[in-house]
Every structure is written in C-alpha cells, then in structure tokens.
Amino acid sequence: MIQLEAVWTAVEPLDKRSGNEAARAQVVTVFGSARPHHAQRFANRRANRMKVLVAKYLDHLPLHRQEAIFERAGHLIARSTLAQWVGECGVQLQPLVDALAAELLRQPVPPADETPVAMLKPGHGKTHRAYLWSHCTTPFNPVKAVVFDFADSRGGQQVRSFLGLPGTQDKPGWRGKLVTDDFSGYKACFELGVTNVGCMAHARRQFHALWANRGSQVGEQALKLFGALQEVEREVADADSQPRLDARRRSRPPPGRSTTASTAGWR
Q1: Kind of pairing, strands 146-151 and 177-180?
Q2: Which of 66, 172, 207, 221 would be a feasible disulfide site paired with 167, CB 3.0-4.6 Å?
Q3: How confident is the model at residue 224 (pLDDT cuts 50, 70, 90)?
Q4: At what angle do helices 79-104 and 63-72 cross, to 10 degrees?
Q5: Structure pTM?
Q6: Dist. CA 149–CA 152, nearest whole Å
Q7: Average pLDDT over all residues of the chain
C-alpha cells in the first residue's frame, strides 16, 4: 500500500486524523472489527485519492506534476492511474453535486459568477481558456452550498443550462433573482423570466477605479454612498432577516432626498 505521508505532509491532519479514522469506522461496519487490515487498506485507498483531488483542484497541481512528485518519493504511479482515480471519485461524488445543485435551485437569490481556468489541450502543447461557473447560496442562508460548473467556454448557454432555462411546461426553468456582475452572458436569462440583481461590489469597483485613477469627485461621492450602505450591512450581519430588512428601510433617505436624486447629476 502506498504511503503518502512523506509526500504531502501539509494535509496530514485532514488525512491521518480525520480521513483515515472516519474511513476505518465506516469500513468496520462492512468488514467487521475482526478484519482491521481491510479497514486500514480501504482507509489508505480513500486517503490516496483524497490527496490527489486536493492537489489537483485546490493546489492546482496537474496530474503529470503529481506523477513526478510521486516518482521522486519512490512511488511509480502512472498518470493514467491518477486520472482513473479522479474519474472514480467524480462518479462517487456526483450524487452530492446533484443534491447541492437541486438545493441551490430552490433558493430565491443565488449569486453566480464565472472565472477562467487554464485547461491543458492534449496534443496541442498549450493551454485553453476554460471556465468555472460558480453558483452559491447567500451568506445569510443556513444552507452553505457552492457548485462549480465546469465549461470549456464562457457562453451564456452554460448558466442557462444550469438553471434549466428556458424550461418546459412539465419542468419549468428556475425563476428567481440572479445576482451577477453584468456580464453579457447572463442577459438571455433575464429575457426568460429571471430577475436581474446587480452586484454592488462590482458596481463599487468601477467608481473606485474612477476615483483612484482620475481623482474624480463623482467617484469619491459614490464611494461614500457605498460606505454608508456597507456600514448598515456590517451592523446587521448577524441579525435575522426581518431585523436586517427593517435596518435597511431605516437607512433610506427621507422623501425628496433619495439616492437617485443625489446621483442625478453624475456623468
């Protein structure tokens, strides 16, 4: 059995103290306590795969580099074997991914974003820009869930597919409030019944750039308005939904002095 403690000591607490012990406890129910060596072997096998997944997806170590790391440690594990391990884990984890996605689609306000990742193209000797589309619950939701939907492009069909849009009469697509950064790939969703909720952090970023790069007074005024809103959010960060709503309503300017009126002269 391959011993990896000398290869990735950084994840030893997660593997040796948690992963292995949990695996042994589960395997004993299958093999019985009379066969502890089976539990140990199964636990090690799980730990090996876990470390490969952590290295690949958290530490961004592609499999060919992991193959070289194993070889330096004296373990000849072919890249094809590592790829098989990743595929097997993906199959085992798919029910969890499906459950998380279903839970997210039950939420009324799930933020969404996309980020580029470099993907190796076999036979080309170079990388291709792929994307991870992230969908998550809000910080105030008791369910903490994130789903990363991998795609080889930034086309808007990726997010529409995740949301089940346009949907059918028997299986309607998702119709909620989608928090986005105004990327054009989301626009088609808003024509299919989804409500567009702009991301305040992305909006603030533009005004900050205007102030930082040009010393704009408009940018400075906008940052002060954002700061006032953020202060309200900090004060109610741990409150329940109704107190948060009440605090936000109390923070509104009086009639005739709305934020829109304050920004009417901005160009």
Answers
A1: unpaired
A2: 172
A3: very high
A4: 130
A5: 0.72
A6: 10
A7: 81
Are 247 and 229 in contact by the 8 Å Cβ rule? The answer is: no
What are 31-85's pLDDT values in tens digits?
A: 344 445 544 554 567 778 888 999 998 898 989 999 999 999 888 889 999 999 9
Residue with tokens 């194993």: 70
The SS3 of residue 119 is strand
> How far is 264 from 252, CA to CA, in rounded Å?
17
Q: Is 43 helix (H, G, I), strand (E, B) or coil?
A: helix
Sheet holding 126-136, edge to edge: 112-121, 126-136, 146-151
Q: Does residue 198 contact residue 180 with C-beta atoms inside 8 Å?
A: yes
> Is the preceding omega at residue 166 within 30 degrees of 0, hence cis?
yes
- Map residue 186 onto helix, strand or coil: helix
> In terms of residues, how long is the chain?
267
Cis upstream peptide for 142 (omega within 30°): no
Chain centroid to CA 219: how far? 31
Asked whether 223 and 206 are in contact (CB, 8 A), the reply is no
